[in-house]
Amino acid sequence: MSQNTGPMLSKEERVRRALVSAEVDRPPYSFWRHFPGTDLDPVALVEQTVRFAAELDLDFVKAMSNGFYCVEDWGAVADYSAISQGGVAHVVRTPIAEATDWRHIRRLPVTAPALSRELRHLAGLADALGRRTPLLATVFSPLTIAHKMAGAHKIAGAHEMAGANELASAHEMAADVLARHVRQAPELVLGALENIALTMADFARHALAAGCAGVYFAVQDADPARFDDAAYGKFGEPFDRMVLDAAASGWFNVVHMHGSRILFDRLKEYPVAALNWHIGQTPPSVAAYRDAGGRQPIVGGLRRDGLTRCDIKSVAADLALIFAATAGRGLLLSPGCVIRNPVDMAFLKHVATRIATDAEGLDASPPKLNAASQRVPALHPKGECR
């Protein structure tokens, strides 16, 4: 990325140019976190999100709806109490006790209580941010929603990524309920998935109409340990595409490929503007993706563990690798997944400031890792959380 000697770009201009791999004054960046105790109140959530975005001067915002808004209207109840201390939410009551219960999952209107609450949140947030800061609506894939609804997360908390061993164990346990129902009553599950997809397609259309630039489409079950490629082609992708087709008017749609094992070759072909996955923890590396001919813009590059732990060395290493792989083109810096609570704002402000100031001097030649301090934002050595 050569230095831009022209006027500083607006946030929207910077994001739009990054999404077509054009020259930018610096890579756009964002961070996201949960707001426990607030994210069930749309007005309070707007206020807290706007404050978070302003303090860090974010180039784009991912709306941080609570992770179970998508199942509440079908009768699931979640416990969010562990999130504030870095844990995960889990379902404590589910409408799915037996495989035959999937027949009761109907298409819902967006006027249903939880869906309408989230649309009010998105509309308020879009209005508060205006066109200055592009907004992404978090929309979960239909199979992910079915997995949450089945109560799998009560077993494992698998919707949040932890260490590789913990996540692998969580996958094995969390897959049991839905996988068993797929074997016992595949047509009932398929019917439910279609109704979920139709519901979320309506939700996506309304989110875009409310002012969102696109959807952050979270796919948490494209894991070969849960569904192999053929099974995902039947129970996952057709319903994913129903939702993404409904969101096609969005100019900033992103697919989030969650987990330590993902069906990357399938998901990378989705009709979206950019790809997001747990880069640095989950294959492929960005360098391998680019070397194989992959040209989709990347949203990510920062391991969320380093940001959560306030680990300067980890963040600096991530920056060196992502700039080496991309030269800053087609890159929108962000975590690979949500930063866990408690969040150290002073640390994030420091990282954001260094990205916003020092990244401007990067040129188009691939950075050398042994000269990373000249190529990526310089970060002070003090890395402990406060």
Features:
alpha/beta; 10% strand; 386 residues; TIM Barrel; globular; disordered C terminus
What does this structure look like?
The chain has 386 residues and is of the alpha/beta class. It has a single domain (11-375), classed as TIM Barrel (Alpha-Beta Barrel). It has 16 helices and 9 strands. The strands form 3 sheets. It has a 5-stranded parallel β-sheet with strand order 1-4-5-6-7. Helix 8 (186-209) packs parallel to helix 10. Mean pLDDT is 87; it is low at 153-174 and 359-386.
Main β sheet profile: 5 strands, parallel
Low-confidence stretches: 153-174, 359-386
In CATH, the architecture is: Alpha-Beta Barrel
Number of strands: 9
How many angstroms separate the termini? 34 Å
Number of helices: 16
Structural class: alpha/beta
CATH class descriptor name: Alpha Beta
- Helix fraction? 40-55%
Query: What is the CATH T-level topology?
Result: TIM Barrel
Average of the residue pLDDT scores:
87
What is the strand arrangement across the widest sheet?
Answer: 1-4-5-6-7
Rg, alpha carbons = 20 Å
